[in-house]
């Protein structure tokens, strides 16, 4: 019996859809993982800025990092994020300026100004941690971003725990759904690419 191309494509599409839904479920469940363990450093993952000011999303990530710092959970905060398209300042330098206005001392802030992606956030943060002798970290981002973020943290052997902001700007059903879909797409693509590399390595 010859299986039609249509059925083959439908079967492949169905399997891809199931894999996508499975990953969405994993990401959603992981978004509730939360830690306030004492660590060497707090790493706040960068995101967009506009006209020299932090976006509302980045602001809440920074606020959570400040909250953790003020609780005495780490002595240093690393703000990540390099120069975005059309920007004259790096994401991390703008984050630092905001944190200074919130009473965080200059000596407590470290900026990572090279990265332009989540992957690079961790690549360059790992380099900073190694150069300063830091071993452990609390990772701060939005809840749905945490699974992908912690995957990169593990890739770089950063001993860390997730601490998603409790005041994320993704509050409505629409924004939460869009955030989850976005993260699922990029997490799934990363998983697929990683498996392909493993097969052909």
Please provide a written account of the structure.
- By secondary structure, the chain is α/β, with parallel strands linked by helices.
- The protein folds into 2 domains: 128 residues, Rossmann fold (3-Layer(aba) Sandwich); 32 residues.
- It contains 6 helices and 7 strands; from the N terminus they run αβββαβαβαβαβα.
- The strands form 2 sheets. Strands 5-4-1-6-7 form a 5-stranded parallel beta sheet, with helices on both faces. A two-stranded antiparallel ribbon has the order 2-3.
- Helix 5 links the parallel strand 6 and strand 7.
- Helix 1 crosses helix 6 and helix 4 crosses helix 5.
- The longest helix is centred in the C-terminal third of the chain and has 28 residues.
- It starts with a helix and ends with a helix.
- 36% of the residues are buried.
- The model has no long low-confidence stretch (mean pLDDT 90).
What's the CATH architecture name of the largest domain? 3-Layer(aba) Sandwich
Sheet with the most strands, sense and barrel status: 5 strands, parallel
* Helix-and-strand structural type: alpha/beta
CATH topology of the largest domain: Rossmann fold
Helix segment count?
A: 6
Order of helices and strands: HEEEHEHEHEHEH
Short description:
By secondary structure, the chain is α/β, with parallel strands linked by helices.
Question: Which helices and strands appear, and what pairs or packs with what?
Answer:
Elements: H1 5-30, E1 41-44, E2 49-50, E3 53-54, H2 56-70, E4 76-80, H3 91-101, E5 109-112, H4 118-132, E6 136-140, H5 146-155, E7 159-162, H6 173-200
Parallel strand pairs: 1-4, 1-6, 4-5, 6-7
Antiparallel strand pairs: 2-3
């Amino acid at each position: 019996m010859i299986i039609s191309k249509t059925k083959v494509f439908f079967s492949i599409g169905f399997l891809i859809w199931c894999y996508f839904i499975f990953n969405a479920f994993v990401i959603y469940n992981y978004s509730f993982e939360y830690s306030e363990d004492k660590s060497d450093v707090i790493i706040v993952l960068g995101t967009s800025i506009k006209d020299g000011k932090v976006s509302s999303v980045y602001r809440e990530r920074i606020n959570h990092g400040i909250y953790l710092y003020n609780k005495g959970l780490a002595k240093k905060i690393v703000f990540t994020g390099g120069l975005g398209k059309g920007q004259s300042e790096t994401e991390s330098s703008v984050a630092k300026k905001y944190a200074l206005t919130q009473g965080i001392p200059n000596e407590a802030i470290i900026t990572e100004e090279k990265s332009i992606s989540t992957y690079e956030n961790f690549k360059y943060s790992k380099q900073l941690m190694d150069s300063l002798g830091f071993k452990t970290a609390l990772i701060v981002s939005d809840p749905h971003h945490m699974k992908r973020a912690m995957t990169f943290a593990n890739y770089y052997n950063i001993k860390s725990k997730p601490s998603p902001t409790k005041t994320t700007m993704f509050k409505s059903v629409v924004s939460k759904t869009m955030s989850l879909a976005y993260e699922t797409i990029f997490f799934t693509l990363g998983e697929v690419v990683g498996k392909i590399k493993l097969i052909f390595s």
